[in-house]
Amino acid sequence: MKPTLLILAAGMGSRYGGLKQLDGLGPHGETIMDYSVYDAIRGGFGKVVFVIRQSFAADFQEKILQKYHQSIPVELVFQELDNLPAPFTLSPDRVKPWGTNHAVLMAKEVIKEPFAVINADDFYGRESFGILADYLSKLDGKQNDYCMVGYQVGNTLSESGSVARGICEKDAEDYLTSVVERTYIIRDTDGQIKYKDDAGELQPLAEKTPVSMNMWGFTPEYFTYSENYFVDFLTKNAGNPKAEFFIPLMANELIVSKKAKIKVLDTPSKWFGVTYADDRPAVVEKIHSLINRGEYPEKLF
What we know:
The protein is α/β, with parallel strands linked by helices. The chain has one domain: Spore Coat Polysaccharide Biosynthesis Protein SpsA, Chain A. It has helices spanning about 30-45, 55-65, 100-105, 125-135, 220-235, 245-255, 280-290, and strands at about 5-10, 45-50, 75-80, 115-120, 120-125, 145-150, 165-170, 175-185, 195, 200-205, 210-220, 260-265, 270-275. Strands 1, 2, 3, 4, 6, 7, 8, 9, 10, 11 and 12 form an 11-stranded mixed β-sheet that branches. Helix 1 crosses helix 4 (about 125-135). The protein is globular, with a radius of gyration of 18 Å. The model has no long low-confidence stretch (mean pLDDT about 90).
């Protein structure tokens, strides 16, 4: 059975200034998601599931989904703030989405096979999808053997401001030993990469430190682990309306508890994305460069 690609497209895009998931960056209005779906098809994925918000479902259907129907099966699931397990109810102070792992949970009913998870607004590169699909295709029927594609932090920064990344450590066999979500990573004026620690202090970070760009591979029991841990998360964060249930938080819990292992897969691909509106011209230029080199057709679908 071919693996499924789950694309997280429900983010608010607050730093970018709009719904960057729908922003046409290619020569025929292609979005970054279009390139991800194209790479997923030729990499060996068999289905695509999008997590979005109900509020822009109509736009999404019109501008995005209709492109793919001839190429690969697609499904939609919705991430909403009030989608919480009993007995939890939505606080009136809550305005942000619950985070990436809450978004993953929304797909529980439609994914029954090994699956990958990516962000909608990140350009991961052709090779990464092939590497990920190959690993996942060997996991059918297995459990608790996951993976992630690791990128060097120095290749994932924005010139326009700070970024959030999962900082990773791995053992000699390339299995993840810890992943910690850092929501403020930046290249300082002296050229050194730094992140804010839990106390808000800036700490140095080596150029080649592996980081998660939210390109993960799981098997379906991951949904059950996530459901159970989400209850613990909500209990612990009852008084924090900004707390987010990140994938690295769940991944780290599984590693520490030894319930699962996560292989870090190397990739020659270079990541780029549109974290800020100022990033847009550079992304457009990079896409045109890839087309000129023959890595993508001028018109994808």
